[in-house]
Amino acid sequence: MPSVQLDQTPRQRWQKVLYKKQPFADNYVDQSFLEKLRKNVHARKYLYWAVVFESGVMIQQLCSVCVFVVIWWYMDMGLLAPQWLFGAGLVSSLIGYVFFDAIDSGAGRNESGRTRWADLKSSVVFVAFTYGFSPVLKTLTESISTDTIYAMSAFMLLGHLIFYDYGANAAIVSSTLSLNMAIFASVCLASRLPRSLHAFVMVTFAIQIFALWPMLQKKLKAQTPHCYVVITFLSAVSALVGLLTISSVGAVLFALLLVSISCLCPYCLIRLQLFKNNIHGPWDEAEIKEDLSKFLM
Amino acid sequence: MVLKVFFPACCSLAESGLLVGRWIPEQNSAVILAVVHFPFVPGQVKQYLAEVHHVTQVEVSVLGSWTNSKQAKEENLGRFLEDLSTIFSHDPWIQLSRKQGSKFWSCSTIWKHPSGDEGDETTLVYYDQRKVMLSQLHPPLDSEVAAASSLDRKVENASRLMAMFNTVSQSKVLFMKDRYDEGPIKLTHWQSEGVEASIIVELMKQASVPACLLVTFLLSLVSRVCQSRALTFWPLSFIWSKLSTCQQLRHRLQHLQVISSPKKAPDQSQLMRKANIFVSILLDVTLGILLMSWLYRKNRIGHLANALIPMADHVAQQLQDLLQWLMGVPAGLKMNRALDQVLGRFFLYHIHLWISYIHLMSPFIEMILWYVGLSACLGLTVALSILSDIIALLTFHIYCFYVYGARLYCLKIYGLSSLWRLFRGKKWNVLRQRVDSCSYDLDQLFIGTLLFTILLFLLPTTALYYLVFTLLRLLVVLVQGVIHLLVDLINSLPFYSVLLRLCRSYRLASGVKFRVLEQEAGKPLRLLMQINPLSYGGVMQAYRLPTYSCYPKDSWGSLCKKLFVGELIYPWKHKGEKQD
Amino acid sequence: MACRRGGNHKHCLSTTSPSISNCHKLPSCSSRTHNICMVSDFFYPNMGGVESHIYQLSQCLIERGHKVIIITHAYEDRKGIRYLTNGLKVYYLPLRVMYNQSTATTLFHSMPLLRYIFVRERVTIVHAHSSFSAMAHDALFHAKTMQLRTVFTDHSLFGFADVSSVLTNKLLTVSLCDTNHIICVSYTSKENTVLRATLDPKIVSVIPNAVDPTDFTPDPSRRDNSTITIVVVSRLVYRKGIDLLSGIIPDLCQKYPNLHFIVGGEGPKRIVLEEVRERYQLHDRVRLLGALEHQDVRNVLVQGHIFLNTSLTEAFCMAIVEAASCGLQVVSTKVGGIPEVLPDNLIILCDPSVKSLCNGLEKAISHLKSGSLLSPEIIHSQVKTFYTWRNVAERTEKVYDRVAGEIVLPMGKRLDRLISHCGPVTGCIFALLSVISFLFLMFLRWLTPDYLIDAAIDATGPYGAWTQQYFRKKRETLNSNS
């Protein structure tokens, strides 16, 4: 375009080029100055209910942590027999396993190429190792103060929530670290339980709720969003009820937290989006939009 | 450029004559070596100088004339001296003259080929000929000078001085004249009276050669035995390399070979090295014999042997108590009870084994000590090395404990560090030498984290055992280190050079300084050159004898790091790493 | 310490006895001369665009009769004062390097040294380079406190999107709000800087970089005309678009069997190129040369027919000018200031994507095959008129002349400017800091008053001892030649 303009008025027109000696001072400011400035090119519009729906992942994870802590409390108090929990866990795992394949009628399994034999092997490894190590776990933290263990577990569970992969594409997300922190917390808490069978059941339950359950959730969310909403609601209710039996104040606070995350935060996000002022121009670092990894496959 | 005339101070009272010396054209300076007195036959002088030149490779020539007018009127002599310049042609021709009673000399130079710089000034520099001849000039060491440009200048200056010093020291022959030898030419220099030969010195010189040959033969015999196949097959050679006594003996053997070699030392530093080694061995053996005479008097060996066994017992007992303490609740630390008990019992069993071993040895201890004590006649250093080896053998159990503790700890740290990477979802990429992220399977993650938790909670127990035994080990290493340091000191200290510096400081020069003497207008500037002795630090740096044992190669930082990750630290030094 | 050493040098210099009478005869002497102090963390022995810019500009300014000194931080054992060609004096200050050759700054610890040097050298204009250099910002800050004129040259582009750029842009705003004049290397860079530091565009001049055309001459005989060679010379980092290159190489190599790549440079992305080479078995066609010395660049360039630049951001791309000066057809991404650098007949501009760059390269290859490409000598003769250091120096001199006529804001006005211009919080913090720095300066002046600091003998400049000799010699050789 500039060359066309040049042809029309060859002498006077200023050009945005460096190689030509132009009859203007070095600090000359042309009218075209900053004309390529763009604002908020990549800003996204959010819909309120879509954001609320997405916040379900976070609600689910908070509820999982809450349920886990409540169950541990019951075990520690001796209100829940380990056999019961183990039985319930086994049954729900089997149901979940069947459900996992049934939702997308085995498409996901074919894609990943994982056999049922491998699943069985993994579960045997889980059970065998946990069972084998449970006496060690029992004596592991004997000499360490209970408060230290609680603090450590709380810290680890918080870390689990922070690093959990909620679907955001940020550097801080690390699902491995998040899962490991949850397992670490569960081992710490399990070592406080009265017997080694308790410890074994507790760790097994932790794997179910922190490792297996989110996998099922992800699939549910992708395939049947309605079902996912219902399950989120159910898990929130169950966590609240469980918490209510322990502490009513805690239950109220937890309920407030859930409400603020699912309703208030999306509202704030959409309001604050209006104030966004992002500058773009030719000086921006170009983004590589193609997928270059295919060249290295 | 200023014309410099270096004039020997001893010749200032000499009678009139010719100045003999060397002309250094690059520096525009003349080094006067001696004065030839009247009367002489010019041809003889020339011939004599040619001989001297042939022997010393120094271009000695007649540089000018010297007039010391005692009588007031000797003008014709002055004219005669001027005529001499035509006989001994030299460019420039220097005429020095001294009036009686006057401190100031007059000096004139005659250039055959006037080159335009006629208005030269002359500077007279007096030097002490004997000291300059004997002294060894040390060029400045690189580390002392930071900036590159000034370094260049210093080196240049040093090389100029070096030329002057070399001139004087190389023309030794000029000064070596027998007292009773009446030559045709009379010279004045620092040794004008001549030297008197000593019969004893001559005899010793004669005797030293066969003595050296004999010693060399014996030494080669010994070293051949040492290198024989029977003593160098694997387990033995390993033990030899770890025993400091063997190292010290080998080192001394090398020293003896150096000083007994009948070859003449090629240069000054080699000569000094030989002398240093000789004095060091002499001192060492003297101290060793003193020690021996003290030990073998009044049955001290017996007392020592009797005290040794109870001491070892006592140490073992103390260790046992320490272990018992660790197995309880040491310092209020709460450790993992089960692991604590296992480790404690393991170590207790070891101590039990050790005590039995000591008691088995006890009847022979005195005899062993008696024979070992004899080795002190080989030198104090050998005796000290043996002492260090004995300490190492007697504290073998501590070493074992330390190794067990360190291995266990090291394993644990290593496991924890790789599991910590797994915990964060990373792994170590060996090919690229960096940490990569990696997606693990669920069961890998689970087992890894389980093990991580267990190892983490067991770490304090192992760490405590490791800490305690490391401290014990460090104590032993420290004692051995002090002994080694002492041995090293005796081995490496250049006693001869230090003595030389102490008694004849001018022999080791690091440079010169000039003092301005009284002046009178119109007379040449007079300077007195004095020798700066080398500093003691410089002596050490220049003449320190190389030794086999090195100080620990690691810095304190890397030592601490090694201790932290549980790598083994050794007191003995490896020969290969030393000599760099 | 540096100052003491300077004293020694003074004595060395005084022996050469400057003859002042000659000064008016100096060639191309401008109406007034300045004592300029270039400050940057980046200088030789470090290599790069900023470094050579400072050096070349200083040399040309010395030639024009100004006095120039350079201040940078010590590089390992290179510390104290060094003299470069024509008596260009470089102070290597003993300041601790923090990250990426940039010094750590506390805003105050460098003040005693810098003030001493400014006073010693009778500096009138402080010219700081590169916004990545902490020392440059420090020097600007102190120079303003000392009431010296300040000029700043920005060599880089910055985004506005992430947290780190928000912070650095704020600091730049503070640093530049009371700087007398700013120089940018391209118009895009000017727009960027004006936005980042919220400046009046009138005080921002655009003076491009330059290359020495005599260093980059074409040599078609070095080309292998049986093949087509594409040359890439850049640091192998993400910002230079090496990932794009890793997509282009296999794509084009499959299409053209006689195509070769030469890649010069070193960096973390080298591994990507190595993987591509391994994956597609291109060891004989893709040569990775590793790090290049500056003097070797030309010898690499002349071996190729086409120069490829894949940068994702670039203020002023020297590499493409160098390549064009060597007579190569340039293919480049259209980012930053690159479109301003070369006329359309010398460069093929593409979008920063593998597809577009491949199209551009194919176009260049077809031109090459059909022989419609300009010959290297023609390209060279065209390019060599574009950017010269003499021109840069002339234009920079104009900036200096202009700045010398301006006033430096007195303390009160400076505080007003800071508070009004940089936002209430940052403004107040930095106003406080400048007050502290002013008090610190008062303290330093009390400690060693200006009159106690002896002036350095000028090595360059109107009364410079070295330039006298230099120009006298030059004149003599000129005379003898003519």
From TrEMBL, chain A:
Keywords of this entry: Glycosyltransferase, GPI-anchor biosynthesis, Membrane, Transferase, Transmembrane, Transmembrane helix
Location (main, coarse): membrane
Pathway: Glycolipid biosynthesis; glycosylphosphatidylinositol-anchor biosynthesis
Subcellular locations according to the entry: Membrane
Membrane topology: Multi-pass membrane protein
Transmembrane segments: 46-75, 81-100, 120-137, 199-216, 228-246, 252-270
Domain of life assignment: Eukaryota
Listed GO MF terms: glycosyltransferase activity
Family recorded in the similarity comment: Belongs to the PIGC family.
Name of the featured protein: Phosphatidylinositol N-acetylglucosaminyltransferase subunit C
The species this protein was found in: Eublepharis macularius (Leopard gecko)
GN (gene name): PIGC
TrEMBL record, chain B:
GO terms assigned for molecular function: glycosyltransferase activity
InterPro entries: PigQ/GPI1
Gene Ontology annotations of biological process type: GPI anchor biosynthetic process
Residue spans crossing the bilayer: 277-296, 342-361, 368-395, 444-468, 474-499
UniProt protein name: Phosphatidylinositol N-acetylglucosaminyltransferase subunit Q
Gene name as annotated: PIGQ
Source organism, top-level taxon: Eukaryota
Keywords per UniProt: Glycosyltransferase, Membrane, Transferase, Transmembrane, Transmembrane helix
TrEMBL record, chain C:
EC number of this enzyme: 2.4.1.198
Claim: Phosphoprotein is one of the keywords in the record: yes
Top-level taxon in the UniProt lineage: Eukaryota
One record GO biological process: GPI anchor biosynthetic process
Pathway membership, UniProt: Glycolipid biosynthesis; glycosylphosphatidylinositol-anchor biosynthesis
Catalytic activity of the protein: a 1,2-diacyl-sn-glycero-3-phospho-(1D-myo-inositol) + UDP-N-acetyl-alpha-D-glucosamine = a 6-(N-acetyl-alpha-D-glucosaminyl)-1-(1,2-diacyl-sn-glycero-3-phospho)-1D-myo-inositol + UDP + H(+)
Residue ranges of the TM segments: 423-444
UniProt-listed Pfam families: Glycos_transf_1, PIGA
Record's keyword terms, sorted: Endoplasmic reticulum, Glycosyltransferase, GPI-anchor biosynthesis, Lipid metabolism, Membrane, Phosphoprotein, Transferase, Transmembrane, Transmembrane helix
Bilayer topology annotation: Single-pass membrane protein
Compartments reported by the entry: Endoplasmic reticulum membrane
Record domain PIGA GPI anchor biosynthesis: where: 73-162
InterPro entries assigned: Glyco_trans_1, PIG-A/GPI3, PIGA_GPI_anchor_biosynthesis
Single annotated GO MF: phosphatidylinositol N-acetylglucosaminyltransferase activity
Functional description taken from the UniProt entry: Catalytic subunit of the glycosylphosphatidylinositol-N-acetylglucosaminyltransferase (GPI-GnT) complex that catalyzes the transfer of N-acetylglucosamine from UDP-N-acetylglucosamine to phosphatidylinositol and participates in the first step of GPI biosynthesis.
Family to which this protein belongs: Belongs to the glycosyltransferase group 1 family. Glycosyltransferase 4 subfamily.
The name this protein goes by in its record: Phosphatidylinositol N-acetylglucosaminyltransferase subunit A
Organism field: Eublepharis macularius
